[in-house]
Specification:
11 helices; mainly alpha; globular
């Protein structure tokens, strides 16, 4: 029997017995490669939640290289299935010193976050870098609650970025978007409740 035939049989058996494990091993190797292509990352995103345990492991392990964390955040931004289970883990990444990881985490929370992550995003509003503040304001306008409105108010009354008029205009715009969304949700909720008799 040729070596190639033996290899294909072994692979067939492995795929029948443990396809997710084999897929996870391949994904782990691909994510570890610094030369991974955007096409490969998009293919991993198409696999969906089958690789969520691997992504969770990589995001919660302290010694995961920054490049792998960035790749996982990118994949999670592309998945077509609900990835809200990662929201808390990603909120903890906002405190990361790495600029790319911090901004990617904040941006991803705008897609999968809930009001539970508002405190972490509010803290990011105090960052010295404009891009972090810009993304934080956008995310708060998407996932924020009434507490986020208060955070906007405090930020605007503070001296943070007081000389950057464009940034302050952006923050006011996001604050107004959040208020409009919350007012609409409250009105819709009021309509849904039948009047008391």
């Amino acid at each position: 029997m040729s070596i190639l035939l033996i290899y294909s049989i072994v692979m067939s058996v492995m795929m029948v017995q443990e396809p997710e494990t084999l897929c996870s091993i391949s994904a782990r190797k691909a994510l570890a490669s610094p030369q991974i292509s955007d096409t490969t990352l998009r293919q991993l995103a198409e696999i969906g939640d089958k690789l969520f345990p691997l992504y969770h492991e990589l995001l919660t392990t302290d010694d995961t290289p920054k490049g792998q964390i960035s790749r996982v955040l990118y994949i999670l931004s592309l998945v077509k299935v609900n990835a809200t289970e990662f929201a808390e883990v990603i909120a903890k990444r906002i405190t990361n010193e790495d600029y790319g990881i911090k901004t990617s985490s904040i941006e991803l929370l705008s897609k999968i976050g809930t009001p539970s992550q508002v405190p972490a995003v509010c803290i990011a509003m105090c960052d010295a870098r404009n891009d972090v503040v810009l993304q934080s304001a956008k995310t708060l306008s998407t996932i924020g609650n009434r507490d986020a409105l208060l955070a906007f108010e405090v930020w605007l009354k503070s001296s943070y970025h007081s000389k950057d008029g464009d940034l302050r205009i952006h923050v006011v715009k996001c604050q107004r978007e959040l208020k409009a969304r919350l007012d609409k949700e409250a009105a819709d909720q009021k309509k849904a409740v039948p009047p008391k008799k």
